[in-house]
User: Fold this.
Amino acid sequence: MKKIIFTALAFTLVLTNCKPELKGELGVPFDKVKGLSGNWELGAFAQRDENNPIKEIRDLSEFYIDGTSNPTLFNFNSSDMTYTVTPGPGKNFLNSGGTWRFDNAEFPTELILEGSSDTLSLKLGTAPREFDQTLKLEFPRFCVDALGVATPTVTYIYTLNRAQ
Assistant:
């Protein structure tokens, strides 16, 4: 029995130590600020019920993209780190403009929008790259009780398409 265990262990060590060496470099990391910079238009809108045990997602795009009016437009300027939102049909849950930043410049997970009256934090689906054509943002909303405990209630899910 000991001989079998020893043989299996030796075989495992041989396999794990025989990996080819990595060659080359990964290259320069993508500039996330340049990746977000530019014009984006709302391509889809959904909401997730955070109180529902199955976290049901309901597509509400028909209220925001009606085919006759321009959808909500977003412009992110990388030179002065400002943004503007030009609302289309449907309710605008975001500020109309202000400044923007990432929570972490190298490995962003959140997009922070600082408007004139409040600061909003949106979760990034992925860090945007200059050649990406879609961007997913999640805007969680909370209900705060008298003790200051925040309970998630709904998350708005924005799917943006890069506009030319």
